[in-house]
Predict the 3D structure of the following.
Amino acid sequence: MHQIMRGFFIVSLGTILLASAMNCAVFDARNRRLTNRLDEIIAPESTAARAALAPVIVPVGTASLTLDLILIHPFSTIPDCAVDAHEIIWENPRGGTVRQIFFFIPKVIATPIFFVGDFLLRSMLNVD
């Protein structure tokens, strides 16, 4: 029974990871700003020009994809994360003044936790 549950867990985890990878933020062209700009600037028409530029373009393209993945896309999600945290935690409070005073400290504590979670989600997955 233990082996069956372990196998089920491994298959489930693999399925979740595969589904997440399909929705990876880097696969969406809107999230590759530097690489898209590089493609616009360096677009040789002839096959000979492409072959001649390949030794330069491959490392430059790899570096641009890496920068898009590690720096540019995650930092571009910060304003959206701030808006989400404000809308979900702080906007449209319910209840009276005493209730809002009671929930102030929990909201202050929850805001950075929610922001970091939203940042990680938006940085890794394609969330609009």
Q: What stands out?
A: DSSP finds five helices and no strands in the chain. The helical segments are 2-22, 33-41, 47-76, 78-90, 97-124.
